[in-house]
What we know:
Elements lengths: L12 H5 L5 H9 L11 E6 L11 H14 L3 E6 L5 H4 L8 H19 L3 E6 L4 H12 L3 E5 L6 E3 L2 E3 L1 H12 L5 H10 L12 H12 L14 H19 L4 H4 L2 H14 L4 H13 L5 H8 L16 H6 L4 H9 L15 H5 L25 E6 L2 E8 L7 E9 L2 H9 L7 E5 L14 H9 L7 E4 L10 E7 L16 E5 L4 E4 L3 H10 L10 H9 L14
Parallel strand pairs: 1-2, 1-3, 3-4, 9-10, 10-11, 11-12
Antiparallel strand pairs: 5-6, 7-8, 8-12, 9-13, 13-14
Helix pairs in contact: 3-10, 5-6, 6-13, 7-8, 7-19, 9-12, 12-13, 12-14, 18-19
Amino acid sequence: MANTGDPKTRLFSSKVVDGMERAPSRAMLHAVGFKDEDFQKPQIGIASTWSMVTPCNMHINDLSKYAEQGVNAAGGKGVIYNTITISDGISMGTEGMKYSLVSREVIADSIETVTGCQGFDGVVAIGGCDKNMPGCMIALARLNRPGIFVYGGTILPGCYKNRKLDVVSVFEAVGARANNKIDDAELHEIEERAIPGAGSCGGMYTANTMASAIEAMGMSLPGSSAQAAVSEEKRLDCERAGEAVLELLKNDIKPRDIMTKEAFENAITVIIALGGSTNSVLHLLAMAHACDVDLSLDDFTRIGQRVPMLADLKPSGRYQMAELIEIGGILPLMKMLLDAGLLHGDCLTVTGKTLAKNLADVEPYPDNQDMIRPLDNPIKKDSHLAILYGNLATEGAVAKITGKEGLVFTGSAKVFDAEEEALQSILNGDIVKGDVIVIRYEGPKGGPGMREMLSPTSAIMGKGLGKDVALITDGRFSGGTHGFVVGHITPEAQVGGTLAIVKNGDKITIDAENKTLTLHVNEHEIARRLDKWQQPAPRYTRGVLAKYAKLVSSASKGAVTDNFE
């Protein structure tokens, strides 16, 4: 009867497998490969987000096996299990995209459910596509058992006519085709060559942004965020993660010991320096909620005032993540930020060491590189992520403005109640210089699901209108979006936010300098319009989207589904 092993490392599995009365449980585990000696070991759940629905995750079962090997070699018993993933890139611009943000909650719930039910003592979570990462991290925070996150790794670039490609290249090619800048044959060539194999989308889009944030937070091993999906470095990262979780168990280091307010501030700092995705705001707020850490939109503004944007990475820049890997990944950047006093070096990490100790021996970038600027010559002197307030966003909105498009935009509203309507109008040539495209009823409740607007923003770029029009929405943006864009507008239109009563022709100003989003309509007229407004009926009344719409909080609170206060 198995009841031995260090009790401090078997706090949960011992309740499942120890003692005479647990013989039926052990019998079932024998059938899945447990030996008698395995019942004496800490059980480590390895949460795989493998799926063949997307190249981001098609290789993750192999990575899970390497993590299992690492766990077993270090004296634990690894148990691989699966959770879902969806593909933002494939579903983008369709009704299916409404399930994207929902999947973050399903992933978190499923990892929590399996780990809690099976009595795993620790967790290694491996994620590839965008929502995998925050979903895994929310689960680790809720469970608060020793755990570590492994990034599945970035894709290698595609190539056409000596130009490096990624998925955003294809979205923008659609706009170029609509504008007759390329023909059908060239669009097909770009389509076929853009995605050469496994891994997450190649720029500083949401996946690479969140992987970098999690590493900066200390919840991944150093270097995990900047490794190709198919590489020896990624295989070793998985094995080492399996070993590291056993050390976390022995030393009783849990996620909430690492995911402190200061660790979140480190993540925000690194995201700003890298020019990361607006989605990071939404996901970090949700992760902080799971940790009971008090993080708000205003923290992004506070940190953004002193942290510059340094990385010339796609979508607004020139380089892909694979090229950043070649010069050292994000570790030299973090060392630079630490030396400048912009990171909290005393934060604990999954190595069991502080961030400062992890970075102590990191070498600087090569002298001849121009991908990461020095602090005294930034791309932008402060954050590209601007939190805006005003009569259109009394609870806040998130803009991604690098300065290349300018810092202030005033234009006339062209209003659409769904993404598809806006996209068709852009492709048809109905959008002209000076327009502010307004896409509403796409928020967490209104969509439901807060779709990403990569199709319309890419069409704008493909049409050559990137500096001439703006787009605002209560939906979100893909990490691949660039241009003069504002998302996450709260309160959203579905709950009666001012966005719901904007009319065609209304003047709107986006001011990234003064951090304001203004509808140039007087208060009396706004009140009159709101008084006449009627809430649309829910688009879904059954199933997961209806459930999500009922439970989800405001985007300004992270769009979480377990805020019952």
